[in-house]
Design brief:
Layout (H helix, E strand, L loop, with lengths): L25 E2 L5 E5 L9 E2 L6 E2 L4 E4 L8 E2 L4 E10 L7 E9 L20 H10 L12 H4 L9 E6 L8 H8 L1 H15 L3 E7 L3 H14 L4 E5 L8 H9 L14 E5 H12 L6 E8 L5 E6 L4 H7 L7 E6 L6 E3 L12 E6 L21 H5 L6 H9 L3 H6 L10 H5 L6 H79 L11 H22 L2 H5 L1
Parallel strand pairs: 1-14, 9-10, 9-12, 10-11, 13-17
Antiparallel strand pairs: 2-8, 3-5, 4-7, 5-6, 7-8, 13-14, 15-16, 15-17
Bound molecules: iron/sulfur cluster (2 copies).
């Protein structure tokens, strides 16, 4: 029997889970049109590989991963690409984002199978991670972090792989129903993930208010003899938060700003394990998931929903009246996001659609503007499971002092909403934190953009300088042969002159028969020369000389 630990803070909430667990999960109806946002995960958006008018098959790749931290998208059904355009998505900003629209043909024709794996244990961990990556699997617990990245310990030892089935938020029952109905597949997915990270131990954690899920799992573990421990954890919110769950199970705290792998832990949602099983065993990418439809609907239940199905279709299928809707929340009442229209599609991280109408008021933490001033009662700090000071965060977030708000560890806040829930002044604290986080990310993005622009400018300047240098070198090179030619020319002239001098010297042949003369001959010559000199002197005499 494992000894459990406690975390500070947290709140006890009413579950509201019974209604949606009365009926078995059913496949959601195929909508006429599916809307696939390109960004359904943490990281960069996927990049379309299809064009308007293309025919696609179920499971076919329609957008590839945009970066290392990203995830590809696959067609949830066969049909035609109608558009690639902006559309409202389930995001706190309420802003539209790029989506691929598929008009379904109703035939549900699958793409050809791409792999057949008979024994996953024979694959290398890297090969398993690649299958998980290519299947577009992200964390289905809500965070949406690409699963294969979390399954890569990068050489670090993984002591324990934890499968999170705590599901502590009110109304949400998709994980519970998945465990009740697909325990064997979840277990198989867990063993595949264990192989991918080479973990020594495996734990499946389930809140102690889900006995049927615990029984279903325990039976499959018995039948298969898998070395996996099922642990029931206390029903207190937010037990299902990764860091709190690790603390409860092991007594270890993930350091501020750190990751579970820093203390030898890896934590995944049960839905992610099911998706891994389908990808490895059945060669099916992540194109559907379990979603709870609860609140103001006639038949609260879980549906197996194709990614991209508009929420309005799901609400209608569960007997909701779309005309009387007051609010639709994607997620639970504590951490969910209210959307402006039910045309928003279910995405990979959509675990619950909570419908609120005049007939059914969902007891939410304070989210409205009717709040009173902070009275510094400190109840928010007592409830905070991360040991933060929510009121200080609130002051600085409200004052838009984004440096100070980070000094108070804003980014350690898991947005659990416990502070909201207990605040007697009904201050929508989490909204302030989300806004502040969004602003800080915006500023950082702006800074990154400016840095990139500066780097581009510097690169441009460097390129210009290099080109200038290269031009100068080219000119110099051109000039150099001229100078060299000049030298050659000079040398050639000198050589020619030398040749002329030599020739001339050769031509200055001494007069013939002037050697070996007898004295008489010499005397005659001298006399002739004297005569000549005299004659020359006479001819050279100028008129001026004569006048003189
Ligand atoms: S609980 Fe509300 S009123 Fe009390 S200190 Fe926190 S923010 Fe202020
Ligand atoms: S929302 Fe953030 S600040 Fe508030 S209780 Fe949860 S972790 Fe603490």
């Amino acid at each position: 029997m494992r000894r459990l630990h406690q975390f500070k803070g947290g709140v006890v909430l009413k579950g509201h889970k019974k209604d949606s667990t009365l009926m078995p999960t059913q496949p959601a109806r195929l909508p006429a049109s599916l809307v696939l946002p390109l960004k359904q995960h943490i990281g960069s958006a996927a990049e379309p590989v299809v064009a308007v008018g293309d025919k696609v098959l179920k499971g076919q790749l329609i957008a590839r991963a945009g970066d290392t931290i990203s995830a590809p998208l696959h067609a949830p059904s066969s049909g035609t690409i109608r558009a690639i355009a902006n559309h409202p998505v389930p995001h706190p900003s309420g802003l539209p984002a790029p989506c691929i629209f598929i008009d379904s043909d109703g035939e549900e024709r699958w793409r050809p199978r791409q792999h057949q794996i008979f024994n996953f244990a024979e694959l290398r961990p890297l090969e398993l991670r690649e299958i998980i990556r290519d299947a577009g699997i992200v964390g289905l617990g809500g965070a949406g972090f690409p699963a294969w990245v979390k399954l890569d310990p990068e050489g670090r030892e993984v002591d324990t792989l934890i499968l999170n089935g705590a599901e502590c938020e009110p109304y949400i029952t998709c994980d519970e129903m998945l465990l009740r109905e697909r325990a064997l597949e979840v277990l198989a997915g867990l063993l595949m993930m264990r192989h991918a990270v080479q973990a020594k131990h495996c734990i499946i954690a389930i809140e102690n208010n889900k006995p049927k899920a615990v029984r279903a799992l325990a039976e499959e573990i018995r039948n298969t003899g898998a070395d996996v421990e099922v642990v029931e954890v206390p029903t207190i919110y937010p037990t299902g938060s990764e860091k709190q769950l690790i603390q409860i199970l092991t007594g270890k705290e993930v350091p501020s700003g750190g990751l579970p792998i820093d203390i030898g832990m890896v934590c995944h949602n049960v839905g992610t394990a099911y998706a891994v099983y389908r990808a490895v065993e059945l060669d099916q990418p992540l194109i559907s998931r379990y979603v709870t439809i609860a609140g103001s609907v006639a038949h609260a239940r879980n549906l197996e929903v194709l990614i991209g199905t508009p929420l309005g279709n799901l609400i209608e299928q569960c007997g909701g009246n779309r005309q009387t809707l007051q609010r639709v929340i994607v997620g639970g009442p504590m951490m969910g996001v209210a959307v402006h229209t039910d045309a928003v599609p279910a995405i990979k991280t959509t675990n619950c659609v909570l419908v609120e109408s005049a007939m059914h008021d969902v007891p939410l933490p304070s989210r409205d503007a009717f709040s009173l001033p902070c009275i510094r009662c400190g109840q928010c700090a007592d409830a905070c499971p991360i040991n933060l000071l929510p009121q200080q965060l609130y002051w600085y977030a409200r004052a838009q002092n984004y440096d100070r708000v980070q000094d108070y560890h804003l980014f350690d806040c898991i947005e659990c909403g416990c502070c909201d829930y207990v605040c007697p002044s009904q201050i929508p604290l989490v909204s302030y934190y989300r806004h502040a986080k969004g602003k800080i990310w915006e500023q950082e993005e702006e800074k990154r953009r400016a840095d990139r622009a500066r780097q581009r400018h510097q690169f441009h300047e460097l390129r210009l300088a290099r080109e200038k240098k290269e031009r100068a070198a080219r000119h110099k090179k051109k000039r150099t042969p001229v100078a060299k030619g000049g030298d050659d020319k000079k040398a050639a002239i000198e050589a020619a002159m030398a040749r002329v001098r030599a020739k001339k010297a050769a031509q200055e042949v001494p007069p013939k028969n002037t050697t070996d003369l007898t004295p008489a001959q010499q005397a005659k010559i001298d006399a002739v020369d004297a005569e000549r000199a005299k004659a020359r002197q006479a001819t050279e005499t100028t008129p001026a000389d004569e006048e003189t």
